[in-house]
Amino acid sequence: MMIVREYISQLEDATLSLVSRINEVDFEELLAFAEQREELVEKILPLKESFADQDRKRLKDLSKYDSMILDRMEHFKSEASQWLLNRGTIKDQRSAYNSSYTPESMFFDRKN
């Protein structure tokens, strides 16, 4: 079926283009790729009964790039996680230093 082959070709083109420059891809581009891939897969899945062996092989060959793409996603996830942790620490420190104290209050420091 020609339409299945066209969808698979679009998926191959998008995947190979992304993988060829995976280390330079930013988060937005990776997100756009994931959305495009999802759209193509949603078009391909209902037609899976009409796949030729060649179509199945092409899709299987594309799956070898999944780990590389997932590694890049994990990289961005860990960057975002680290940024959130740093931001939370800064927020805690800022609130500790900027707390308003009542001038008449007393502070007791106890040794344990």
TrEMBL record:
Domain of life: Bacteria
Subcellular location: Cytoplasm, Cytosol
Keyword Chaperone listed: yes
InterPro entries, alphabetized: FliT
Main location: cytoplasm
One Pfam family matching this protein: FliT
Keywords associated with the record: Bacterial flagellum biogenesis, Chaperone, Cytoplasm
Family the entry assigns: Belongs to the bacillales FliT family.
Functional description taken from the UniProt entry: May act as an export chaperone for the filament capping protein FliD.
Name recorded for this polypeptide: Flagellar protein FliT
Record lineage: Bacteria, Bacillati, Bacillota, Bacilli, Bacillales
